[in-house]
């Protein structure tokens, strides 16, 4: 798994040298106070008081919070073991799953993947995350990123829901064939009853129709998306809708989208674009709307003054 996730096996295949002795303490008393440490190239002896990382797992073995010297590197200690040292308890791994999941939720999924090498428990935690944040920035190309997402979703328990799903594809160069992959990722999230959906793309991507009929979506934030067909909109749970640099082919699609959000409370738009001429049409009252923020758009939202519970200013 190390090679799959791009985590180099830094210490695999290395054999400690028995001839090399660096930083050896001069006196016997000091030698009894030293431990074995890996300096990145070899096993060496160093003073426990000065070593920046004296308990490296490649250098020592753990036994009930005690550390034993793993190798005898010809140090003049009379052939005995070095004195024991106390290791601090791993209090983080003892935390409940819910708290660890919350901690992992602040990491991008590719960063959270590195925690899987800590222990079997961390690996199971990684695959059972409910908050998924996929960002293509660390990947070399679009194919590698897409393969990573497919592999993660395939290993994840299909019965687990997804609370939040964020997909950001802005760094890699995407070809036409990758659009189907993006559709698949969004479809998987919708099928897993996602509640918060964030999509940020750097190229033209048409919003899949199945997103607009999700019964579980509570937050929907779209960036650089094209909406050119809305056959049906039913978002009964959607409370937050943010649209940034979204292109609508017809103005009526905006009205249809908003009309399908009966409990909408927070509306935000920035740099909206309608590619065809539009006619002003009435919109059903958004009786639950509490906040509206309309920025940098030539589209007029005159119907906002009819919102009964509007609290925030429109800019």
TrEMBL record:
InterPro entries: F-box-like_dom_sf (IPR036047), F-box_AtFBL13-like (IPR053781), F-box_dom (IPR001810), FBL60-like (IPR055294), LRR_PRU1-like (IPR013101), Znf_FYVE_PHD (IPR011011), Znf_RING/FYVE/PHD (IPR013083)
Molecular function via GO: zinc ion binding
Protein name: F-box domain-containing protein
Ranges of residues in domain F-box: 89-142
Keywords recorded for this protein, A-Z: Metal-binding, Zinc, Zinc-finger
CDD domains: F-box_AtFBL13-like
Gene source species: Trifolium subterraneum
């Amino acid at each position: 798994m190390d090679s799959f996730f791009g985590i180099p096996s830094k210490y695999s295949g290395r054999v400690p040298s028995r001839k090399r002795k660096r930083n050896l303490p001069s006196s016997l008393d000091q030698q009894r106070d030293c431990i074995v440490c890996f300096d990145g190239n070899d096993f060496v002896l160093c003073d426990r008081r000065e070593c920046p990382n004296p308990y490296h797992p490649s250098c020592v073995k753990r036994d009930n919070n005690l550390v034993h010297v793993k190798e005898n590197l010809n140090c003049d200690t009379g052939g005995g073991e070095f004195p024991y040292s106390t290791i601090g308890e791993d209090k983080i791994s003892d935390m409940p799953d819910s708290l660890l999941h919350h901690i992992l939720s602040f990491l991008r999924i590719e960063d959270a993947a590195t925690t899987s090498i800590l222990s079997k428990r961390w690996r199971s935690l990684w695959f059972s995350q409910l908050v998924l944040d996929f960002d293509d920035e660390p990947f070399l190309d679009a194919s590698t990123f897409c393969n990573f997402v497919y592999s993660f979703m395939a290993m994840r328990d299909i019965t687990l829901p997804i609370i939040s799903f964020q997909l950001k594809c802005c760094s890699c160069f995407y070809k036409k064939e990758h659009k189907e992959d993006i559709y698949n990722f969004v479809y998987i999230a919708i099928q897993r009853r996602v509640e918060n959906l964030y999509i940020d793309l750097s190229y033209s991507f048409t919003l899949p129709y199945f997103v607009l009929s999700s019964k579980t979506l509570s937050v929907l934030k779209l960036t650089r998306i094209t909406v050119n067909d809305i056959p049906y909109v039913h978002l009964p749970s959607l409370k937050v809708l943010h649209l940034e640099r979204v292109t609508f082919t017809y103005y009526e699609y905006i009205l249809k989208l908003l009309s399908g959000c009966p409990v909408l409370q927070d509306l935000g738009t920035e740099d909206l674009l309608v590619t065809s001429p539009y006619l002003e049409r009435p919109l059903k009252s958004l009786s639950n709307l509490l906040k509206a923020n309309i920025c940098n758009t030539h589209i007029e939202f005159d119907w906002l003054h009819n919102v009964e519970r509007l609290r925030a200013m429109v800019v």
